User: Which sequence fits this backbone?
């Protein structure tokens, strides 16, 4: 219990520090929102252009795709709020020896490594994403009502998946001099998450549901909310995420053994 | 300006060549990462485009979209890869960072203006990529029946597009003189460019009523224009007319940079040592 409260206290301090920092850079809020609005607009425009040529795309109507975009934006914004900056810092943490400080603290170093930085302004984009979902839910055929509660579960699945995948791309910082190429690669692959998985041919789709499960971030949650999933898919999601956790834990431990402090 | 005119012109050329070499060495110092970046930037967007065509034509059973068949679309996607590698670059972000951090001061006394210097350094890896893409395009052209000279002209257009893109980026980066968040302005520009350059989809599939949007920006000259010419969908006359339009955009971009940086430099304060 004491251990748990230590973690909660630590988290409170982190949130407070981040809130103060963001309050100093208020214009950052406006620009972040503007950037994300344009990003949303580009994605909506892209699909609008495609749907001006066809009523259905791989079984998805335009409004269903817009609903998916809402789920994806909300899920991604949650990841951005709580984790993105920490992953950007991860390489420096290892290669510049900043991990030293975290290793001496009375909480798990990984907990501190992943919760040091928040991007609280991105929270607004979660609201925007949910707004998009609400706007297009009736036309997309989403039943609504109590099923909105499932949204919370699926957003958590989306964020958890994003953390696991991003970690798998970042952990190589222990073995490489600078790991930004891997980060870039993550964002290149991330583009696959911006489209519903049913669009992809079988082989790519299989990869997006197993080896690089970007479909779990927005597409699978949207599909689960709109049409429901088969029992086999629930099992698949669970097994893939467990496999990622095992992989990440293994390499984190191996990485720590390799870590040589500031000279690493 | 008076200071720059005191520098002999040969010195400025030496600087330009040195900046080009320096930029190339800098970008390729970590070869594996350079390769990763180029491949990642090429393969993933192409795969996503192909997926859209696959969903439309193979899954959706369509035969034609905006007059283009599945083969036309795949051809467009593959050839657009060659030009989307040439467009853009992050050097306008470097300019905004120089202004924000105050490091701009270090560049003010050099023989070449800072906007030009950063461009030359940033464009070096793009020139290298452009030459590789040109060779690939010409060789593929021989196999698939495209005119290699068209590929050459298309690459010239893509390079002109690269300059226009930087000019717009440099003008937008000058907002850094007034506001700390020029970075976001550049991000917004890049997102709009990704759609309106033809990198994501061929622009002729835009609904007729919305075609004016991409036609009224220079962004289509980065990828869509070169692909149209390389694939023989533009006549030579149309190509030269578009190059004329590109020249006008170049002049407009040059003026924009002159004015925005002239105004910005009046506000710039170089504090500290």
Assistant:
């Amino acid at each position: 219990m004491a251990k748990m409260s230590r973690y909660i206290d630590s988290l409170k301090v982190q949130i407070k520090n981040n809130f103060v920092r963001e309050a100093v850079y208020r214009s950052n809020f406006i620009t972040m929102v503007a950037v994300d609005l344009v990003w949303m607009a580009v994605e909506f425009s892209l699909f609008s252009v495609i749907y001006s040529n066809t009523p259905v795309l791989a079984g998805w109507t335009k409004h269903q795709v817009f609903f998916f975009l809402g789920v994806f934006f909300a899920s991604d914004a949650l990841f951005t709020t709580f984790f993105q900056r920490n992953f950007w810092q991860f390489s420096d943490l290892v290669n510049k020896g900043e991990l030293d400080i975290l290793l001496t603290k009375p909480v798990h170093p990984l907990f501190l490594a992943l919760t040091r930085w928040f991007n609280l302004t991105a929270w607004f984009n979660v609201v925007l994403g949910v707004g998009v979902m609400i706007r297009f839910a009736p036309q997309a055929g989403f039943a609504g009502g109590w099923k909105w509660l499932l949204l919370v579960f699926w957003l958590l699945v989306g964020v958890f998946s994003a953390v696991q995948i991003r970690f798998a791309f970042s952990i190589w910082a222990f073995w490489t001099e600078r790991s930004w190429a891997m980060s870039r690669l993550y964002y290149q692959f991330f583009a696959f998450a911006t489209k519903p998985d049913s669009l992809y041919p079988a082989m790519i789709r299989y990869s997006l549901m197993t080896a690089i499960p970007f479909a779990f971030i927005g597409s699978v949650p949207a599909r689960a909310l709109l049409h429901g999933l088969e029992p086999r898919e629930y099992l698949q999601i669970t097994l893939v995420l467990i496999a990622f956790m095992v992989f990440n834990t293994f390499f984190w431990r191996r990485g720590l053994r390799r870590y040589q402090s500031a000279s690493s | 300006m008076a200071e720059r005119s005191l520098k002999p012109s040969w010195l400025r050329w030496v600087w330009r060549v040195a900046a080009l070499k320096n930029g190339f060495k800098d970008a390729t110092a970590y070869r594996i990462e350079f390769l990763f970046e180029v491949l990642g930037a090429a393969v993933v967007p192409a795969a996503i485009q192909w997926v859209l065509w696959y969903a439309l034509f193979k899954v959706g059973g369509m035969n034609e979209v905006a007059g283009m068949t599945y083969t036309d679309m795949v051809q467009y996607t593959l050839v657009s890869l060659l030009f989307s590698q040439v467009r853009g670059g992050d050097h306008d972000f470097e300019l905004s960072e120089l202004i924000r951090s105050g490091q701009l001061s270090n560049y003010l006394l050099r023989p070449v203006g800072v906007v030009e210097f950063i461009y030359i350094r940033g464009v070096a890896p793009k020139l290298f990529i452009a030459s590789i893409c040109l060779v690939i395009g010409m060789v593929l052209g021989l196999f698939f029946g495209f005119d290699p000279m068209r590929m050459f002209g298309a690459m010239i257009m893509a390079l002109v597009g690269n300059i226009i893109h930087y000019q717009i980026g440099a003008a937008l980066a000058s907002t850094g003189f007034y506001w700390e968040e020029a970075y976001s302005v550049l991000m917004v520009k890049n997102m709009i460019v990704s759609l309106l350059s033809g990198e994501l989809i061929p622009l002729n599939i835009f609904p007729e009523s919305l075609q004016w949007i991409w036609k009224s920006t220079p962004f289509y000259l980065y990828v869509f224009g070169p692909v149209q010419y390389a694939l023989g969908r533009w006549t030579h006359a149309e190509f030269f007319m578009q190059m004329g339009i590109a020249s006008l955009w170049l002049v407009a971009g040059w003026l924009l940079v002159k004015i925005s940086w002239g105004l910005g430099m009046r506000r710039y304060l170089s504090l500290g040592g």
Remarks:
- Residues 2-258 of chain A form one domain.
- The two ends of chain A are 35 Å apart (CA to CA).
- Residues 164 and 244 of chain A are 6 Å apart (CA to CA).
